[in-house]
Structure formats: C-alpha cells, structure tokens
C-alpha cells in the first residue's frame, strides 16, 4: 500500500513577519487573500500585506493584550478582542479607525463573525458569551451557563448554533434562536482552550490544556476522533476548508498536521522558538499561518492539499465504510482514536529551508503624537494630576486577574517563553527614528488615551482629543459627585443623631420636672 508521504508534498515555510514586540496571540487571513492580521500581548493589531515588499500596518487602540482577531467575511472589517474588556471593529486602511464595543465586565478572550457577517460572538472571563450586531454596533444578548472563564466561542456555518468552551472543562452548544444551551460535552481533564466547527457544520472540534484534541459528530452527539499527539496544552487549531486536515498549535513549540480521513498525525513542524499560540488556514487552504511566544508570525504553503479530491478518494478507497464518499462526516473508526505522544509520522526538520523574507516596513496608525505636556495643557492639569488621571483610567479598565492568562495560558508558561523569545523581539520602527523618538512612541502607546486617526494634525484628531479629555473630566466629576453624595449622607446622619440626642435630653428633662412636681 502506498504511504501518505509518497502522495503528498511537504508544507514549506514561505515568509515570516517580524513587528510585534511580545507574544503573538491570534491571527487570521483576509478572505481577499491579500492580507494577514495578527494580535499580540503588545496591545497592537498588525495587518501584513502579502504582496512582496508591501508595507505592514500597526494599529494602536487597545489598552491591554489582544486575545482574538478575525476578518469579516467580506474582508472590509477586522474584529479584535482584548483583556481590556472591550471588542473593537477596525477598518483595515490607512485611516486606522475603530469602533469600541463595551458590555463585558472582564477580559474578552475571543471574537468571531457569523458567516453572513451580521453578528459577532465573544467569550469572556466574566463567564458569559455575548452576541453583538455589527451594523447597529450594539450588544444583542448574552449566554450565561458557564461556571468559569469562557475561552472561545464560534458560530456554526449556518448561524443556528454557537459553540463555546472554557475553564469549567466543558463545551457548550447553544441554539441562537431560543438562546438555550442544547448540549454540554464534559469530557476534559483540564480547561477547554479552543472550539470550532468544520466547514460543513456537521462536526465540532475542541482542544484542551491536557493536550487532547477531540472531534464530535453533532448529528449523533458522539466523540468520533480523539488525538493525543502534543506533549503540552493545545492553544489553537484550524480545519482545512476541505475538512480533510486539521492543524494545531501547542505550548510544546510545535505545529501538528492531522489527516482526518486516515485519523492520524502526518506532519510535525518546528518553526517557532517557544510555545505556538495561534494557527489558522487561509480561506482557500493553500496557506496557513502560525504565531507564538517568539513574537513572530510564520506563513506556510500548505502543499499537502495539492492533490485533487478525486485522487484523495481513490487513495482512501480501502477505508471500510458503507458510505461512498469518505468525508469527515463519516470518519472511520468512530471510536476514540488515540495516538501515542511519540510520532510515527513524518518529522519536518527543525532546520526548515530558510525562505524568510526581509522584515516589512511598518506604518504606525492609530497613535497620537501629542506628548504628556500638551495633553496636560488641554485639561489644565498639573503633571501630578495628569499622572493620577492616567492611573484612574488604567484602574477603570484593569481586570482583577493580575496574571497573564490569554487563551488558556498560565503565567508559568509565559515566564518560560520569555527566555526563548528575548532574542526575537524586534521592534519595527519607521526608518530614521532615533532612540528618543522610540521612547516617546512607547510612552504614547501605553497612554490611556488613543487617537484613531492616522493624521494627528487634522481637525478630527483634535476633536477626538477633546472628546477623550472630556470623558476623563466626566469620570472625575462623577467621582466628585459620588463623594459629595457620601458627604451629604454623613451630614444627614450626624444631624439626625444630634436631633435624636436633643430629643432624648428634652425627654429626660421633662421626666425630671414631672418627678420633682410629684415630690412637691
């Protein structure tokens, strides 16, 4: 029998992208096949143009780590989720504009569009899954039966279902019309880190911090495949559009490629230094991307899908099944298919052929060039007051969780990545920037106020500054009003107490007079 290796082409590393300054947490291809988006712990969204020597764009606006990113089906919008409790909708253009969605009360861990592009679904540490209207830019409804942090949520291709998973160790299926949980799959030894539907909507896959990956048939509600091929937790996975393959990224530093028709591991890729946090196929499946703790985004040519589907069917003709077209909807065997951690498949050498491109020129968007002195003059604050205002704004957005746990990672894993990622964190700046300008840029990026226009000198930029300063003043006024209310309440209590004392004194005086009169 011909082995799979002889009828497949090996995947190859096509390009790498350096520009993020911290762990890359999420990535997604534009359906137009011209762009790749990635988000990072460095709080920025990067849009990489896939054309050779094209510029990349960095969008600044989130106040904490970005945890999820996805292009809309039309490719005209990009949604991001963040630990700053917000979701943003970006226009991936030079304007750098974004709209902010606020309803979650804790870190938002994932964001995804419905397949018609009309809705967004988000998952959060506040234990809820929320659905939003893209056109109305508003919150629609919430799903609230998870008992711990929710790590991931996705729409089914037809929009009738939502799958979600989280730290309560279960995968839930929701009916979007009734808003009810219709199934709960509880078969995990640890946190469920990621969940998604295949392209036909007949199956869902879910991954766990216990390094397991499971595929469920939604028509029978049965587990049909179970892979245990990684040596550490799985952070992300992606179905190939044909549903014949699946890629997964793990904290063990590898990307694994599974043949779902044969039910086995076929490739292990060693492109990253440190944990792999995100993997994703392009919409056509000819490319896939991976990102991780080394702050890099790697883009790979799939190659192994180059054979026609007819050839694949012929190759799998010996599969024992009564159904003529072998497909993921009818996988053999239907019992849990366990694999040993040691690989019996092809290992692509860690020294992958270096086809890496030069670092692209990065255009900074969504930043303000105004320094703190100018910002202070806007609000007539002293430097001390301005600092206090910044702290207040950061506290307002801060999450009680002080440790970095994005997409199911633990603080210990982040610490272990730091050593391997140190040598790879290359900040990309415009040509000719000096050290002083870089320091100012860092100061600007961490400032709680952001200007979404790419042209800070414009009237729009100035007006946005004024509006944002008014927001802080409004918050300050609300705090003062609250304090005044508390003071008034205390004064009322004091006056009531004093009047009660006076009443008691008068009553006791009257009693004494009455007693003296009776004695006389």
Short description:
This protein is α+β, with helices and mostly antiparallel strands and 520 residues long. Helices cover 22% and strands 32% of the residues.
Query: What name does the CATH topology of one domain carry?
Result: Methylamine Dehydrogenase, Chain H
Which outline best applies?
A: elongated
Instruction: Write out the CATH superfamily name of one domain.
Output: YVTN repeat-like/Quinoprotein amine dehydrogenase
Please compute the radius of gyration using only Cα atoms. 28 Å
| CATH uppermost class of one domain | Mainly Beta
DSSP helical segment count: 6
Strand order of the largest sheet: 2-3-4-5-30
Description:
The protein is α+β, with helices and mostly antiparallel strands and 520 residues long. The protein has six helices and 30 strands. It has a domain at 4-12 and 104-347: YVTN repeat-like/Quinoprotein amine dehydrogenase (Methylamine Dehydrogenase, Chain H), CATH 2.130.10. The protein is elongated, with a radius of gyration of 28 Å.
Attribute tags:
five-stranded mixed β-sheet, 32% strand, Methylamine Dehydrogenase, Chain H, 520 residues, alpha+beta
Topology (SSEs and partners):
Elements (H helix, E strand, L loop, with lengths): L11 E7 L5 E6 L5 E6 L3 E6 L6 E5 L5 E6 L6 E5 L3 E5 L7 E5 L5 E6 L5 E6 L4 E5 L4 E6 L6 E6 L5 E6 L4 E5 L5 E5 L6 E6 L5 E6 L4 E5 L4 E6 L6 E6 L5 E6 L4 E5 L4 E6 L6 E6 L5 E6 L3 E6 L7 H7 L30 E2 L14 E4 L6 H8 L3 H15 L13 H11 L13 H11 L13 H61 L1
């Amino acid at each position: 029998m011909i082995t799979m290796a002889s009828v497949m082409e090996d995947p190859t590393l096509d390009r790498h992208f350096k520009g993020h300054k911290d762990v890359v947490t999420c990535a997604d291809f534009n359906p137009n096949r011209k762009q790749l988006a990635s988000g990072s712990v460095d709080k920025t969204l990067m849009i990489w143009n896939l054309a050779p020597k094209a510029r990349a764009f960095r969008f600044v606006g989130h106040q904490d780590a970005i945890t999820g990113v996805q292009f809309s089906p039309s490719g005209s919008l990009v949604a991001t989720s963040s630990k700053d409790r917000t979701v943003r909708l970006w226009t991936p253009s030079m304007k750098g504009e974004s709209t902010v969605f606020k309803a979650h009360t804790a870190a938002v861990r994932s964001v995804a569009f419905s397949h018609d592009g009309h809705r967004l679904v988000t998952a959060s540490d506040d234990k809820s899954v929320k659905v939003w209207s893209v056109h109305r830019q508003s919150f629609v409804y919430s799903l609230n039966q998870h008992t711990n942090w929710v790590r991931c949520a996705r729409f089914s291709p037809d929009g009738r279902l939502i799958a979600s998973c989280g730290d309560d160790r279960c995968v839930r299926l929701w009916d979007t019309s009734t808003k009810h949980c219709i199934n709960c799959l509880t078969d995990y030894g640890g946190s469920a880190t990621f969940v998604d539907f295949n392209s036909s909507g007949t199956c869902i896959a879910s991954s766990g911090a216990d390094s397991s990956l499971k595929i469920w048939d939604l028509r029978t509600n049965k587990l049909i495949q179970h892979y245990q091929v990684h040596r550490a937790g799985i952070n992300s996975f992606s179905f190939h559009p044909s549903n014949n393959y699946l890629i997964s990224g793990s904290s063990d530093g590898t990307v694994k490629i599974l043949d779902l028709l044969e039910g086995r591991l076929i490739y292990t890729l060693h492109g990253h230094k440190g944990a792999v946090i995100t993997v994703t196929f392009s919409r056509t499946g000819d490319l896939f991307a991976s990102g991780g703790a080394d702050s890099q985004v790697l883009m790979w040519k799939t190659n192994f899908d180059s054979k026609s589907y007819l050839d694949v069917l012929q190759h799998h003709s010996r599969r024992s099944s009564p159904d003529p077209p072998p497909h993921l909807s009818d996988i053999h065997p239907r019992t849990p298919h366990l694999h040993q951690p040691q690989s019996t498949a092809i290992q692509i050498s860690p020294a992958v052929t270096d086809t890496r491109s030069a670092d692209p020129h990065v255009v900074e968007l969504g930043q303000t060039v105004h320094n703190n002195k100018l910002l202070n003059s806007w609000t007539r604050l002293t430097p001390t007051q301005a600092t206090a205002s910044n702290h207040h704004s950061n506290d307002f957005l801060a999450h009680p969780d002080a440790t970095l746990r994005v997409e199911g990672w633990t603080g210990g894993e982040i610490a272990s990545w730091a050593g391997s990622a140190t040598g790879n964190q290359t900040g990309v700046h415009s040509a000719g920037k000096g050290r002083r300008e870089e320091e100012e840029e860092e100061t600007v990026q961490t400032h709680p106020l952001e200007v979404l226009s790419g042209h800070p000198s414009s009237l729009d930029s100035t007006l946005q500054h004024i509006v944002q300063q008014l927001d802080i003043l409004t918050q300050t006024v609300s705090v003062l009003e609250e304090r005044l209310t508390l003071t008034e309440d205390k004064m009322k209590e004091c006056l009531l107490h004093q009047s009660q004392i006076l009443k008691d004194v008068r009553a006791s005086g009257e009693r004494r007079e009455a007693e003296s009169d009776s004695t006389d």
